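so my prof wants the structure for this chain in the tokens format not the other one, which i didnt know existed until like an hour ago. anyway here's the sequence
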Amino acid sequence: MLQKMNLIVVWDVCSFFFKSKSEVFFFFSDLLPAVAEFVKEQTIKYYDDVSAELIHETRNGDIDVEEVIRAWEKAFREVLCTAFNSLSMNTIHRV
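here's what i got, hopefully its the right format
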């Protein structure tokens, strides 16, 4: 019910600016790809900035590389153990 109410509100707002449903459709069909492209570009830029900062901190000795390696090693072990346990629990043993 809430989704239907939201759609009604969106349509009321859109009908204030647009004359027909087709105009609303074309507006959103143009807007959504542009928003998706913007989000994609900004996400890539954010990760590039974070990566550059981490590289800079590593070169300056601000980050203990051995600690990072231990953290990743622990994470991989946990993921692999979880996956293995899940797989072995779901496997049917045939005799």
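also thought this was worth mentioning. The longest helix spans residues 21-59.
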